[in-house]
Amino acid sequence: MATVKDIAAAVGVSVATVSNVLNGKPNVGSVVRTKVLRAAKQLGYRPNRAAQAMRTGRTRAIGLVLPDLTNPFFPELAQAVENTARSLGLLVCLIDSQGSADGESDGFALLMQHGVDGVIWCPVGARLPAALRKLDRPVILVDRPGLRYPVVHSNYLAGGKLLAQYALRMGHRRVGLLSGPADLQSARLRRDGFVNACPDKLQIVWEVNVGFDGLLTSAAIDALVKHRNKVSLIAAGNDLIAISAIRCLTEHGVKVPEDMSVTGFDNIRWADLVTPRLTTVAQPMGAIAAKAVELMQKSLSGQTIPARHTLFEVTLIERDSVKRL
């Protein structure tokens, strides 16, 4: 098995330089860094992470804390994070909070016990877990603006605006909103982008808040069924809510999109599999995950990451769930 000395000899640099490159430290030029990484790959180098952890106090493991793995958005996000992290030699320890603040706190405590170097986190809500208040390691947020950490997310306001403008182009004027959780800024931004895009042209006839898990409340079902003749389009806070709305409408004899149009948000893989195929807004999942891991890697190498937003633009995906009036 190749060693650090073998790589150093192949490239013609010191063992310390090779070690700096393999540990992600920034004090090596890009040309030398590229040569070292290429030689490591060609020689089949595999680092002994246990020995490194004993020597450096770093495990090269990061936590990934997600709110609900039954929502297909989050397994897709987890896969994208893990792919990028693995390419950088980072191990990902996944925690499913199961939609619970207590589960979130327990997950953070477990990650600390296992000595992760940092955490990529998509919060359940707006409350800071107790375990996180004592954390002395870097934290990067994804998909959830609002707390005091660096955060990577999509331009939700722009996504809501895209859907509102599309609704108008398709001839819809009276809309029902199945907005996401009111306590999440990501949900509020989607809603505000839609509502404020064309306030003089679009009328919001009714609005009900629904969890991102897509489970419709009795108030949501009542709005869909009892007030279905008052609107021509349902704008849902995410794709799961939209798919649940389509099922509810179908069960009550309302055809989508013939009798009612529906839009979602996220572009999960299910959106292209349901009938009708769902018109939605696509988030660049791969780019968001890659940026979150990149920020984590920079933080682990000693760089200071400011608590600011990294914003990615979204795209309207037009499918079959909206009828032109």
What's the short story on this structure?
This protein has 325 residues and is an alpha/beta fold. Helix content is 41%, strand content 17%.
CATH architecture label name of the largest domain: 3-Layer(aba) Sandwich
Distance between the termini: 67 Å
State the CATH topology of the largest domain: Rossmann fold
Q: How many structural domains does the protein architecture include? A: 3
The Rg value, from CA coordinates, equals 23 Å
Spatial arrangement of strands, main beta sheet: 2-1-3-4-5-11
Which runs of at least 5 residues are low in confidence (pLDDT < 50)? none
Class based on secondary structure composition and strand pairing: alpha/beta
Count of distinct strands:
12
Reading the helices and strands in chain order gives HHHHEHEHEHEEHEHEHEHEEHEE
Beta-strand percentage? 15-25%
The CATH top-level class label of the largest domain:
Alpha Beta
CATH homologous superfamily assignment of the largest domain: Response regulator
Tally of helical runs: 12
Largest sheet: 6 strands, parallel
Whole-number mean pLDDT: 90
SSE topology:
Elements: H1 4-11, H2 15-22, H3 30-43, H4 49-56, E1 61-66, H5 73-87, E2 91-96, H6 101-113, E3 118-121, H7 130-133, E4 139-142, E5 151-154, H8 156-169, E6 174-179, H9 185-195, E7 203-209, H10 218-226, E8 233-236, H11 239-251, E9 261-263, E10 280-282, H12 285-300, E11 309-312, E12 315-317
Helix pairs in contact: 1-2, 1-3, 5-12, 8-9
Labels describing this entry:
434 Repressor (Amino-terminal Domain), Rossmann fold, elongated, alpha/beta, 6-stranded parallel beta sheet, 3 domains, 4-stranded parallel beta sheet, 325 residues, 12 strands
